[in-house]
Design a protein that fits this description.
heterodimer, A: mainly alpha, Four Helix Bundle (Hemerythrin (Met), subunit A), 2 domains, extended, B: mainly alpha, two-stranded antiparallel ribbon, 11 helices, 2 strands, globular
């Protein structure tokens, strides 16, 4: 992928990511986050990581954000829109963010690896889905099964908590 | 830059969109009216042109020339965005579906990516935004209820949709849609794996879970495209039209076309996964001459048209489900059936070593 596409998608991601924070309307924030996720997926695909990119769209943009939007719509958060901006708190937040940013730039600037140019990535020829599957069910089988049990326990817990009221 | 690739891809995209999909969408509206009329012993539109064949064109002009009215209470930006979001995902799903073998050496698929089916699901899951936003931006009760209904319905049926295709990929071992078609040419179609290998008991056993998975997938596609018997988001009697109540003229038409485009792309995916794609027994692929390449494309779209007829047939035959029945069906039956089905296929594949 040509470099200008990387810049376009990276810029889109950052702009829409910032819009998530700046927007006062929760629905607009959620939709901006979706566009930001889509740009991130495009960046993954530019690295030939189609599987990760598609899963990014499928899980985050397609499932989690739909649920978010659903809940925001049901709650009907008009209060957030009417609330006045607290300038002192905003200034403090911006100061902390800027301090963090300078710190990151300073640290990266002092890294030796950051100053050398890397050779371009080779195009992958192997099937990334197969690789992810082999890694999950081969090398990391036990942690994978443990996470499965964990998610199952959480699901059962949610069902139990939501059923209690009905009885 | 590979100019040959770019030119052929552009030709395929433009040809697919303007010569195949958009006419197909407008003519499936016509077909729906004629088929429903036939089923109810009426005539249907038969005045514009021979047998009413120019009716879609007249309809498009009517919709374009109508007054485009937006109510004052809507949320303007999202109100305009929603119809686009309803139509676009339905159309770009088609990018990964192989609609023919090869024509003059060019593969007849727009983007042959290695995660084809996941791409279809990812884009289909974005389709819900159009409907939800339409319901919310209209700022009115019934459209909002329609939007909420459709989002919960689509999320519920996405699960059975995803689980129902796993058996196919257990057999193929690859998520690329062209290799699914290739596998079906070599081993028989997914719903009839015993073809060409009649004496093999394992293939006959395999046909049972494959047919179950075909049925579950097809019904889940009905629910995903909001077609009757699952068109709860636009139940006229309860919701006064559903999520597009506040829309008029071409914006309404975009929702309408989006529904039909989703139906067409859903049929294309079903054909590719279960019904052999562009393959028909006895017809060689496009490497044997360009005429066979054209015939392969024709076979594919004939299969798609047959499935669209089934969609219409079901719509004009079955009554609508109640909302709790719909949810129970999705979560308590299809989800479990699809899950058990995966184990069945896995056991058969492991035992007979396909």
């Amino acid at each position: 992928m040509p470099a200008y596409l990387f810049w376009i998608f990276a810029l889109l991601m950052l702009v829409f990511g910032a819009a998530v924070v700046i927007n006062r309307n929760p629905i607009a924030s959620a939709l901006n986050l979706v566009v930001s996720f889509l740009s991130l997926a495009a960046l993954f695909m530019s690295l030939d990581a189609f599987f990760v990119g598609i899963i990014q769209v499928l899980v985050y943009a397609g499932a989690i954000m739909v649920l978010f939007l659903f809940i925001i719509m049901l709650l009907d958060l008009r209060v957030e829109k009417l609330r006045k901006i607290n300038w002192v708190a905003s200034a403090g937040g911006i100061a902390v963010a800027l301090a963090l940013l300078t710190q990151i730039f300073y640290v990266i600037g002092n890294l030796k690896a950051a100053r050398q140019t890397f050779p371009p990535l080779a195009r992958s020829t192997i099937d990334d889905v197969r690789n992810v599957g082999l890694a999950l069910f081969g090398n990391y089988n036990l942690p994978f099964q443990i996470i499965g049990i964990l998610v199952l326990v959480a699901t059962i817990g949610v069902v139990l908590l939501s059923k209690r009221e009905v009885r | 830059m590979d100019y040959f690739l770019i030119t052929t891809s552009l030709l395929k995209i433009v040809g697919m969109l303007f010569i195949v999909i958009l006419p197909m969408v407008s003519y499936s509206v016509y077909a729906e009216r004629r088929v429903s009329a036939f089923m109810q012993d009426r005539l249907g539109p038969n005045r514009v042109g021979p047998a009413g064949l120019f009716q879609p064109i007249a309809d498009i002009f009517k919709l374009l020339l109508k007054e485009d009215f937006s109510p004052r209470h809507v949320n303007t930006f999202y109100y305009w965005l929603a119809p686009c979001l309803a139509l676009v995902p339905a159309i770009i799903t088609i990018a990964v579906v192989p609609f023919g073998s090869t024509l003059l050496g060019v593969p007849m698929v727009i983007a042959d990516i290695n995660v084809g089916i996941l791409y279809v699901f990812a884009i289909a899951s974005l389709g819900v935004y159009g409907i939800v936003l339409a319901g919310w931006a209209s700022n009115s009760k019934y459209p909002f209820l329609g939007g909420v209904r459709s989002s919960s319905q689509m999320i519920s049926y996405e699960l059975s949709l995803g689980l129902a295709v796993i058996p196919v990929f257990l057999l193929v071992g690859n998520l690329r849609l062209t290799s699914v078609v290739r596998y079906q040419i070599e081993h028989g179609w997914m719903i009839a794996p015993f073809i060409g290998d009649w004496m093999n008991l394992g293939k006959w056993l395999l046909a049972i879970p494959m047919i179950i998975s075909f049925v579950v997938f097809t019904i889940a596609v009905f629910a995903e495209t909001n077609r009757l018997p699952f068109d709860l988001p636009e139940a006229e009697q309860e919701l006064a039209g559903g999520y597009h109540t506040e829309y008029s003229s071409m914006k309404f038409a975009l929702f309408f076309l989006g529904e039909y485009a989703a139906m067409i792309s859903g049929s294309e995916v079903i054909v590719t996964l279960f019904l052999g794609g562009w393959h028909f027994p006895g017809i060689p692929d496009g490497s044997h001459g360009w005429i066979f390449g054209v015939i392969n494309i024709a076979v594919f779209f004939a299969k798609v048209a047959a499935l669209i007829f089934v969609f219409m047939w079901v719509r004009w035959t079955l009554p609508r489900f109640r909302y709790d029945q719909l949810m129970r069906l999705g979560w308590l039956f299809f989800f479990e059936i699809a899950l058990v089905n995966i184990f069945l296929v896995a056991i058969i594949v492991a035992y007979f070593r396909f």
